[in-house]
TrEMBL record:
Domain Maltokinase N-terminal cap: start-end pairs: 30-125
EC number(s) given by UniProt: 2.7.1.175
Protein name as annotated: Maltokinase
Pathway it works in: Glycan biosynthesis; glycogen biosynthesis
Enzyme class (EC, first level): transferase
Catalytic activity: D-maltose + ATP = alpha-maltose 1-phosphate + ADP + H(+)
Family: Belongs to the aminoglycoside phosphotransferase family.
Keywords: ATP-binding, Carbohydrate metabolism, Glycogen biosynthesis, Glycogen metabolism, Kinase, Nucleotide-binding, Transferase
Alphabetized GO MF terms: ATP binding; kinase activity
Domain of life, source organism: Bacteria
Complexes and interactors: Monomer.
GO BP annotations, alphabetical order: glycogen biosynthetic process
UniProt organism field: Streptomyces fructofermentans
Length: 466
């Protein structure tokens, strides 16, 4: 198997174009239906091939084709022209598809090099999924693909792969409940925080984040893109979102869990501040930050008109922050998680919290996601999440979210030595920014959920941190 993954390379360009031409009609239909497709609502007008590698050359009724494909789409309304997002596709190729893989079928090309064969989503199939882990173990190189790993973590063979079925922005395969490989679907060249930050935390000895055991890179035109990260699987873990809602559904308090989560968040922040550069943000930078929040609000109001009546109140959260900066206040910024919510926190059966998914907001450029930011941004994300949990159930317990929010901040303060609530203007600005983001997110992806962030919008528009 190792031999197979190391022996192939880029297909010659004429063949690559044939390959893409034969897949084009299938992908036009299939790609926009995927949960992780970022360009929903705009037609795909064509594809170009960024890279192609036969990770498993077609033989004995099975092949694994690795493609990086750019999907061309017209710009979003009011947006500027864009070369199109690049997606990572792992395509299985078989002469005949066994019935168990029927749901994974993408289609059967009618012409070109794959004519008459079944092309399917390879991650559903244990055999090609196994080849990826083998390639990491073997530190293989296939065309532009580079499979690497941490020599100190043993990856034993024989781990049975299964594709995660959870709603995700990417795709993950669990190997024998020992490792989990996340394959990033929308790929961008450059250092990806989903690998960068867990590696930095592992080096700093922070055990709150699973230490990367392997990773998959692509070297393209002088730039490297991160395509996948393999991490230890937290066995028997439950995520904070399910746990918090479970307690609330039973009428139970979740403040002990929230306090422990606050401590875990502060541990990660402290480790990141020690491992990577921190900067001081003064008037200029904070005014830019507040202006960015205001701009996002204006865009959100255009996209979701029901925000309009609350816009002045929401805007005041951002002007209050700019005013404070104008008075000479400074803030320390550092690398943070960037998209922290209850769903990114896993509790092991022994009660330890782990934080996952350091990708940041995937829709933002890498440079922006990698910028140091005040840690209050992550704290605000978690505070929003407790509020989300409280409003996502039909019956609620009065004061439940407030108790969680207070406990989380207290736990954070116990470790960090500073309570996020002592900076209410910054916290309100970040909470408001997040709630506005959530309104747009829900309007686009889960319209039934829109009332949840809208409740917060009404509260935040009326609140005053001073
Ligand atoms: N190390 C891990 N151990 C156990 N489960 C994990 C681990 N990492 C991720 N998961 C599970 O996989 C899901 C998706 O992972 P995540 O990194 O959030 O992917 P995405 O960016 O695609 O949303 C998580 O919600 C969690 O249930
Ligand atoms: O997990 P992702 O990185 O894909 O984050 C996106 O989807 C989240 C929903 O799955 C969304 O989070 C919002 O809903 C959560 C409950 O489902 C809640 O815990 C969060 O607090 C709330 O923001 C997230 O905003 C979005 O970026």
């Amino acid at each position: 198997m190792t031999e197979a993954v190391t022996s192939s390379a880029h297909a010659p360009s004429a063949t690559r174009q044939d390959l893409l031409a034969s897949l084009d009609p299938l992908l036009r239909e299939w790609l926009p239906r995927q949960r992780w497709f970022a360009g929903k609502g705009r037609p795909v007008t064509g594809f170009s091939l960024v890279a192609a590698a036969e990770v498993l050359p077609f033989d004995a009724n099975l092949g694994l084709l690795h493609l990086l494909v750019r999907a061309h789409q017209p710009p979003a309304q009011g947006g500027t022209a864009h070369p199109g997002d690049c997606y990572q596709l792992l395509l299985g190729v078989r002469e005949t598809l066994p019935p168990r893989l029927a749901p994974a079928l993408i289609g059967r090309p009618t012409e070109g090099p794959l004519a008459g064969r079944s092309v399917y989503e390879a991650l559903h199939d244990p055999r090609p999924a196994d080849v990826l882990l083998e390639a990491i173990r073997a530190r293989a190189r296939v065309g532009a693909l580079r499979f690497e790993g941490d020599a100190r973590q043993e990856i034993r063979d024989g781990l049975i792969p299964r594709l995660m079925t959870a709603e995700q922005s990417n795709s993950s395969v669990v190997y024998g409940d020992t490792f989990i490989l996340k394959l990033l679907r929308r790929t961008v060249p450059g250092v990806n925080p989903d690998l960068e930050l867990p590696l930095a935390l592992a080096r700093a000895g922070c055990a709150r984040v699973p230490a990367p055991a392997g990773w998959i890179l692509a070297d393209l035109a002088g730039d490297t893109s991160v395509l996948g990260v393999l991490q230890p699987f937290v066995q028997g873990a439950a995520d904070g979102w399910g746990l918090a809602r479970g307690e609330l559904a039973k009428g139970e308090d979740f403040s002990r869990g929230a306090r422990a989560l606050g401590r875990a968040t502060a541990e990660v922040h402290t480790a990141l501040a020690g491992a990577l550069p921190t900067v001081t943000l003064g008037r200029g930078q904070m005014e830019v930050l507040a202006a960015g929040m205001t701009e996002r609000l204006e865009t959100a109001v255009q996209a979701v008109p029901s925000l309009r009546p609350y816009a002045p109140g929401l805007r005041s959260a951002f002007t209050a922050l700019a005013d404070l900066a104008g008075e000479g206040r400074t803030w320390t910024a550092q690398r943070i998680h960037g998209d922290l919510h209850l769903g990114q926190c896993l509790r092991s059966p022994s009660g330890e919290w782990t934080l996952i998914d350091f990708e940041g907001e995937p829709s933002k450029p890498l440079a922006e996601r990698r910028m140091p930011q005040p840690p209050a941004r992550d704290v605000a994300g978690m505070l929003r999440s407790f509020d989300y949990a409280a409003h996502s159930l039909t019956h609620t317990v009065p004061g439940w979210a407030d108790a969680c929010r207070a406990a989380y901040c207290s736990g954070y303060a116990e470790v960090a030595g500073r309570d996020p609530r002592t900076d209410p203007v910054l916290l309100r600005a970040y909470e408001t920014d997040k709630a506005v983001y959530e309104v747009v997110y829900e309007a686009r992806h889960r319209p039934d959920w829109l009332p949840v962030p809208m409740t917060a919008v009404r509260r935040l528009a009326l609140s005053d941190a001073s």
